[in-house]
Amino acid sequence: MKKRLVLLGIAALAVSVMLTGCGGKQQAKADKVIQIGTNAEFPPFEFQEGNGEISGFDAELIREIGKAVGMDVQITHMGFDAIFEGIDRGKVDAGVAAITITEDRKKTVDFTEPYFDAKQYILVPEQSNIKSLKELKGKKIGVQSATTGEAIVQEAFGKTYEGLKGYDETPSAINDLQIGRLDAVVVDSAVVVEFKKKLGDGKFKIVEDPALPVEQYGIAVKKGNGEMLKKLNEGLKKVKENGTYDKIHNKYFGNNK
Ligand code: ARG
After folding, report:
1. pTM, 2 dp
2. Residues 166 and 99 in one domain
3. Is the pLDDT of residue 45 over 60?
4. Domain assignment of residue 202, given as a range
5. Overall number of domains in the chain
6. CA–centroid distance, residue 38 to ligand 1 (Å)
7. Is residue 120 within 6 Å of ligand 1 at its C-beta?
8. Residue 199 maps to a domain
9. Cα of 15 from ligand 1 centre, angstroms
């Protein structure tokens, strides 16, 4: 009788060790890699190198944030909209894509502390006399769909404004501006500066409308995922404190913040 009980005990122990062992392993694996969704068509924040590797300010920042909290980072390119869907469905842990923190988005995702300031700039041909967003009324305006650039144009001229053209990726809008299909493109400041450089001197100019609001970028996680949020905030704080953030910032934007 005693012997049987002991055997039973050993068997139970073995089973529980096996179970917790497996669970533990899975946990450790899931915990070690942070899956990141981005839309890598948004230089200098995220873009794909010739070999397909994703680099840019955001990409370097999130990799360093991962390092700071002892986690690997896997970045996947997807549509801008798909990032939010991916977060919602748990396909990715976080979105890092120059995502502006907005009240609307806060309904479905939680954001880390802000990590970058921006605003919408207007890119127009050099000879254009446009000085503000309002003056674009009646003109053809390109934006990336589902972005804050689209939102401010819709706010100014109505959701169904027929001059508004939404593109899946920002470079396609820039292309259409270049070939004269658009009168202007409205997109994030640092991105406009980057594209203007690429387009060459004397062809396009940047209009900064003082009436447009300042935006702040944050890393988005699924609403209620406090654990991931805490980790990312912790990493962000560390890279800001240890000079890594400044190093990456200087690499992409020079010394002037
Ligand atoms: N900051 C803008 C927004 O949040 C545009 C972001 C677009 N990002 C990108 N990777 N394409 O709506």
Report:
1. 0.88
2. no
3. yes
4. 120-207
5. 2
6. 9
7. no
8. yes
9. 50
User: Are 67 and 112 in a shared domain?
Assistant: yes
Tokens for 89, please give them. 């469905």
Percent of the chain residues topping a pLDDT of 70: 87
Could you read off the pLDDT of 54-80 as tens digits, one per residue? 999 999 999 999 999 999 999 999 999
Residues 235 and 190 in one domain: no
Residue 52 counted as domain residue: yes
Atom index in ligand 1 nearest the CA of residue 99 equals 4
Locate tokens 């396009």: which residue?
204
- Token digits for 60? 């370097």
Ligand 1 within 6 A of 121 CB?
A: no
Is the CB of residue 98 below 6 angstroms from any atom belonging to ligand 1?
yes
Kindly give the number of the ligand 1 atom that is closest to the alpha carbon of 147: 12
In a domain, 15, yes or no: no
Order of strands, sheet of 220-222, starting from the edge strand that comes earlier in the sequence:
72-77, 33-38, 94-95, 220-222, 109-111
Report residue 118 as tokens.
């921006």
Instruction: Check if 112 has its Cβ closer than 6 Å to any atom of ligand 1.
Output: no
Q: Are 57 and 247 in contact (CB under 8 A)?
A: no
Tell me the CATH number at 183: 3.40.190.10
Tell me if 194 sits within 8 A of 43, measured CB to CB. yes
Measured from the Cα of 217, ligand 1's closest atom is 1
pLDDT tens by residue, 187-227:
999 999 999 999 998 999 999 999 999 999 999 999 999 99
Per the domain annotation, does 27 fall within a domain?
Answer: no
Whether residues 156 and 187 fall in one domain: yes
Q: Quick one: pLDDT at residue 30?
A: 47
